[in-house]
Write a structure and sequence with these properties.
The structure is a single chain. By secondary structure, the chain is mostly helical. The protein has two domains: about 1-85 and about 225-240, Winged helix-like DNA-binding domain superfamily/Winged helix DNA-binding domain (Arc Repressor Mutant, subunit A, Orthogonal Bundle), CATH 1.10.10; about 85-220, GntR ligand-binding domain-like (Four Helix Bundle (Hemerythrin (Met), subunit A)). It has helices at about 1-15, 20-35, 45-50, 55-70, 85-110, 115-130, 135-155, 155-175, 185-200, 200-220, 230-235, 235-240; strands at about 40-45, 70-75, 80. It is globular and about 50 Å long.
Length: about 240
């Protein structure tokens, strides 16, 4: 527990404006993006408090934020669980993401600065490197962060808020329903999208984004092999001081 608390203190030094619940929230959010937390996992406040070395009040605040984003379900008198979308809910989420991604892509093409586009490219290079060395979880997280960075570049706070929820929910959907091989080619699609954005080719960029979402949706079935409902296993890196 002390090592975990030291880790949180280190995180706070790196970003002094972050509160303890900000940091706990970020760790759980990343675990969902990386598909290390299985859909339906019970998020026991006492266990999480021990893992992160913080009070249950801090844990409740973090879970409340995740509940607001709909990636965690807050059940009165029964505690919180990671969301487990049904097939119909998954379809609705993917549809909603299409609407948001289209708007985000159009705004990015209109407003993106060259330094922001370069930052997108660097993120995709990191994503590709993760998949190349077999770190699928980090690669998936960076893929999600690519879309979140685009939402930031759109300079529309409501869209960014929607996107945070949708990207993390889509990660849960993939953990539940993805079928076939564990191949991942999103970084190729991301590279093509970046070039369209750089050229401010709005129509091509939107078309590439929709194709990217088609690719994701076409692979959906059921797969929870890489996720776990063991909280201590998911956050073992923190417990070991890594």
């Amino acid at each position: 527990m002390n090592q975990t608390l030291d880790s949180i203190k280190t995180d706070k030094k790196r970003g002094s404006k972050k509160t303890q619940d900000d940091i706990v929230y970020a760790h759980i959010f990343d675990a969902i993006l990386e598909q290390r937390l299985a859909p339906g996992t019970k998020l026991n406040e006492e266990s999480l408090g021990e893992i992160f070395g913080v009070s249950r009040t801090i844990i409740r605040r973090a879970l409340s934020r995740l509940g607001h984003e709909q990636v965690v379900v807050l059940r009165p008198n029964r505690g919180a669980v990671v969301a487990s979308p049904t097939i119909e809910e998954a379809r609705q989420i993917v549809f909603a993401r299409r609407v948001v991604e289209k708007a985000v892509t159009e705004l990015v093409c209109e407003n993106a600065e060259s330094t922001q586009v370069d930052k997108l490219k660097k993120l995709v290079e990191e994503e590709q490197a993760c998949f190349s060395r077999g770190d699928r979880g980090a690669g998936i997280r960076l893929s999600g962060e690519f879309h979140l960075l685009m939402a930031e570049m759109a300079n529309n706070p409501p869209l960014l808020s929607f996107q945070r929820s949708l990207v993390s929910l889509c990660s849960l959907i993939i953990a539940q329903y993805e079928s076939g091989a564990k191949s991942h080619c999103s970084y190729d699609e991301h590279y093509e999208l970046i070039e369209a954005i750089r050229k401010r080719d709005k129509n091509k960029a939107v078309r590439l984004m929709m194709h990217h979402l088609d690719h994701i949706e076409d692979k959906l079935s059921l797969d929870d092999e890489n996720a776990s409902d063991d909280l201590k296993a998911v956050f073992s890196g923190l417990l070991s001081g890594k």
